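Structure request: Dihydrolipoyl dehydrogenase, Candidatus Protofrankia datiscae.
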Amino acid sequence: MHEVDTHEADVIVIGGGPAGENVAGRCADNGLTVSIVERELVGGECSYWGCIPSKTLLRPGDVLAAASRVPGAAQAVTGTVDAAAAFAWRDYMTGGWDDSGQVPWLDSKKIALFRGAGRLAGTRTVEITGDDGARRLTARRAVVIATGTVAVVPPVDGLRDARPWNNRSATAATYVPRRLLVVGGGATGVEMAQAFHRLGCPRVTIVEAAGRLLAREEPFAGEELRAAFQATGIEVITGVPLVSARRQDGDSTVVTTLADGSRISAEEILVAVGRRPATADLGLDMVGLAPGRFVDVDGWMRATGVDGGWLYAVGDCNGRALLTHMGKYQGRLAADVILGRDVPAATDVVPRVIFTDPQVCAVGLTEQQARDAGLPVRSVTYGTGDVAGAQVRSRASTTSSGSSKLVIDSERSVIVGATFVGPDVQEVLHAATVAIVGEVPLDRLWHAVPSFPTVSEIWLRLLEQYGL
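Returned structure:
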């Protein structure tokens, strides 16, 4: 019988993506010994198959579209996106799916890296199975789960056998299909639809079972994005679910059927309908938790239902907000709790950016969510492209200028939600995040003067709409 190699550390982190790295780094910077267990690549989904490659593939088309809206620059745009060069830049940005460029960061903080699949084996104990044998790690203070999520393939007849793309297939693609069918009108679906259309895919269709794109955001955001997509040749079908898919013609074509009986053929089909937690094989049952589910946590990221407060879950695997920046925030918060610091509970104010053109940026509650929460709501809207800063940047159009909206708690006179649609408006969002998290009264916010001419002038116009 082989002996199990044993190690001990103050903190063990299962998962080396952004959330896990933030826990590990913050704990190590403050004198704790830390071990990270990673079964794939240090840097996680975001670095190799998510945020970084997807935004890298979107960028060439964004630049050309922005230039085409500026008189004088538009005349210089005479070519199209070079897909091969875009893929090469994507490869560079992902390190060629090699994490040797990320590991030195762990070494610099004296964080021990264990490669393999980590599994809870009891209180503060993690067993690792890897290519070089089995190991057992024991944590003196805490174990942190940061394993993220994986793409869902819905139980549609024939879909799995049709070998659909998921986010990993799409962001790691090496060619542009002649026709692409995207199932799902959420962030991943709309971003990848536009990326491949601008990379040279002549026929892109989005099928969304809900009644509109971006169903969790303000209705106007999805409708304005739909109009922009259709104006550039991306077909959008909403309110009709997919019911079957089959590979045909020597596997070169996927033929799909929708609930209304219509059929769509494509060279590739990208399924982007949601994520599930990567927790099925973590040994959660060894500590009294249900495997395969999101790990329920309190406001300090401690797993509920586990005695002793030693188990934490940060990032996508806890289901609170499936966004990289929120996972990193949760990682910092969990580290502070492990370090014994007195910190407030996590905020539930979530900023989010969909990097399409036009962009959709939002934070806090939609108007309907605020009303459902029983808040006394008043909302104001203004055309994003109607401020001078936007007009200086580019010629406005009905399909690119977009709208902006504030959702206001009229009793407290504070903003509880904000949405901005328009080209390159992501930098306007953080001001809204600060205003909502800080509960800045509107009569005080009115004195935060936006520079002229910038797109931030939209803040002044929205407050004027409110009557300030």
